[in-house]
Amino acid sequence: MQLPKHFKIIDLALQYKDTLIIGDLQLGYEAVLHKQGVLVPPFQLKDILKRLENIFKKTTAKRIVINGDIKHQFGSISEQEWRETLQLFDYLLTKVQEIILVKGNHDLTLGPIAKKRNIAIVDSYTIDDVTILHGHELPKKITKILVIGHEYPAISFPKRPGEKYKCFLLGKWKRSNLLVLPSFNPLTEGSDVMQEHFLSPFLQGGIKNFEVYIVESGKTLHFGKIQTIKKL
After folding, report:
1. Main-chain phi, psi angles of 60, to 5 degrees
2. Beta strand 19-22 with 63-67: parallel, antiparallel or unpaired?
3. Which residues of 90-104 are buried (b: 16+ CB within 10 A; e: fewer)?
4. How far is the CA of 32 from the CAs of 44, 104, 182, in angstroms?
5. Could you report the per-residue pLDDT of 81-110, keeping only the tens digit for each?
6. Which residues touch 30 (CB under 8 Å, ≥6 apart)?
7. pLDDT over 70 for what percent of the chain?
8. Residue 18's closest CA among 103, 127, 101, 102?
9. Helix, strand and coil in the chain, % to nearest 5
10. What's the gap between Cα 4 and its chain centre?
11. Residues 6 or more apart from 22 whose CB is under 8 A from it?
12. Which residues contact 131 (CB under 8 A, 6 or more apart)?
């Protein structure tokens, strides 16, 4: 099963025609770790901007959709989230004509930040027969292709313990093609799909027939189906 027509993977971003899609940035995560006693330098936004700069060298996209969880904290907005989210918006507005924010489960308090740059927040965003939604809830309307985040997919290999790679997943959900985005957050590799413990209701039926596209050092490698990888 190949990527649907007009789709391509560019590092950790997915492009459909002139629209770039990323998800799960989790800005402000370092501040939360600091409160938990885990001291990490504040490099997250710097790494995200560097990665985006490399992606924009390979695309002429006019629009970017951030597919949920742009910030980390649920019920409040930290000083770091205010500052870094606005810095991200200002950077993206130099690259694209439009920013679309799809609400994720971490984005309950995103509204005041988005309002500062007059950016709308939506529950989902549809282009042609493609619907982009975060993936923590099932949609009311189903289109031919669905693009979700939320799951942070990554994959390990039985004969290479200790190694894990961020990946895109491509499979079927009901009558739709389902594309699952990896996390854009540099502080986490993600959840190992080989363990099959899923957050998203879209994946509760299992993913053995899903295709895996691994992202490593900016390159995309197609590894085939999950059930085939388990036999390696």
Report:
1. -115, 30
2. parallel
3. eebeebbeebbbbbb
4. 13, 18, 21
5. 899 999 999 999 999 999 999 998 877 788
6. 40, 41, 42, 43, 44, 80, 187
7. 92
8. 127
9. 20, 35, 45
10. 18
11. 12, 13, 14, 64, 65, 66, 67, 181, 184
12. 124, 125, 139, 141, 142, 143, 145, 146, 147
Distance of alpha carbon 72 from alpha carbon 75, whole angstroms = 10
Point out which residues pair with 14 in neighbouring strands. 9, 21
Q: Are strands 211-216 and 191-192 parallel, antiparallel or unpaired?
A: unpaired
Which helix H or strand E contains 114, and what residues bound it?
helix 111-116
What is the Cα–Cα distance from 151 to 212, expressed in whole angstroms?
A: 14
Structure tokens given for 127: 């282009």
Residue 187: band (very low, low, confident or very high) from pLDDT cuts 50, 70, 90:
confident
User: Measured between alpha carbons, how far is residue 155 from residues 51, 63, 183, 200, 213 in Å?
Assistant: 21, 29, 13, 16, 10
pTM over 0.70: yes
Task: Pick the closest to residue 100 from 66, 123, 59 (CA basis).
Answer: 66
Average pLDDT score over the chain: 90
Residue 219's pLDDT band (boundaries 50, 70, 90)? confident
Which amino acid type is present at position 206? G
Q: Rounded CA gap, 167 and 212, in Å? A: 6
DSSP characters for 66-85?
A: EES-SB--SSS--HHHHHHH
* Rounded to 5°, angle at Cα 178 from 226 and 169: 35
More confident residue, 8 or 229: 8
